[in-house]
Design a protein that fits this description.
The structure holds 2 protein chains of 2 kinds. Chain A is mainly β. Chain A has strands at residues 9-12, 18-23, 32-37, 44-47, 61-66, 69-74, 83-90, 96-98, 102-106. In chain A, strands 1, 3, 4, 7, 8 and 9 form a 6-stranded mixed beta sheet that branches. A 3-stranded antiparallel beta sheet of chain A has the order 2-6-5, with no helix packed on it. Chain A is globular. Chain B is mostly beta strands. Chain B has no helices and 11 strands. In chain B, strands 2, 4, 5, 6, 9, 10 and 11 form a 7-stranded mixed beta sheet that branches. In chain B, strands 1-3-8-7 form a 4-stranded antiparallel beta sheet, with no helix packed on it. The chains are: A mainly beta, B mainly beta.
């Protein structure tokens, strides 16, 4: 299996833009997914197939991809966005992997 | 509405096995794959494996393939995850999740504590 690398933490003030990156060698060939996990809760899918947003997810969440890096962008961060964020992808053998997670702190 | 409801918390001794269930409702069970993921204290989300609820085929993480068995009962719309030879590092919250485009619905999580 391969690895996905995320920064351990990102901090922003309310109203600013947060960007969380995820790097992996297979990302040019495989879609990435992003999950938000708040303390004590199950993860929630916020972006699928690199840049698609599920219904019910606020428009301030967006995703992009460039080469071996995908990025989750949260525009106009709100206090309720404070959480751990994980990227995820699959490899060609149908196994899945998560990144190490990024703790988003809203100052 | 789609729901995945997991069995309750477990406390096990080292070397024992644990079986966690994931009962689904609100959709056609055999149409989707069910995955199992865990979150240990201070660790990252970790993928254990999946079962194709339609044909029963499975795939496991290399890290767990000697100890994990994932099955399903189509008559009960339920998936199961069995983890054997438990050790303290297996203490974690275990989740089941349905795969559509990404893991779109999750169970509430089951805390498994391994302690002597």
């Amino acid at each position: 299996s391969y690895e996905l690398t995320q920064p351990p933490s990102v901090s922003v003030s309310p109203g600013q833009t947060a960007r969380i990156t995820c790097s992996g060698d297979a990302l040019p060939k495989q879609y990435a997914y992003w999950y938000q996990q708040k303390s004590g809760q199950a993860p929630v899918l916020v972006i699928y197939k690199d840049s698609e947003r599920p219904s019910g997810i606020p428009e301030r969440f967006s995703g992009s991809s460039s080469g071996t890096t995908v990025t989750l962008t949260i525009s106009g961060v709100q206090a309720e966005d404070e959480a751990d964020y994980y990227c995820q992808s699959a490899d060609s053998s149908e196994t899945w992997v998560f990144g190490g997670g990024t703790k988003l702190t809203v100052l | 509405q789609v729901q995945l409801v997991q069995s309750g918390a477990e406390v096990k001794k080292p070397g024992a096995s644990v079986k966690v269930s994931c009962k689904t409702s609100g959709y056609t069970f055999t149409t989707y794959t069910i995955h199992w993921v865990r979150l240990a204290p201070g660790q990252r989300l970790e993928w254990l494996g999946w079962v194709n609820a339609g044909n029963g085929h499975t795939k496991y993480s290399q890290k767990f393939q000697d100890r994990v068995t994932i099955t399903r009962d189509t008559s009960a719309s339920t998936a199961y995850m069995d983890l054997s030879s438990l050790r303290s590092e297996d203490t974690a919250v275990y989740y089941c999740a349905r795969e559509d485009v990404g893991f779109d619905y999750w169970g509430q999580g089951t805390l498994v504590t391994v302690s002597s």
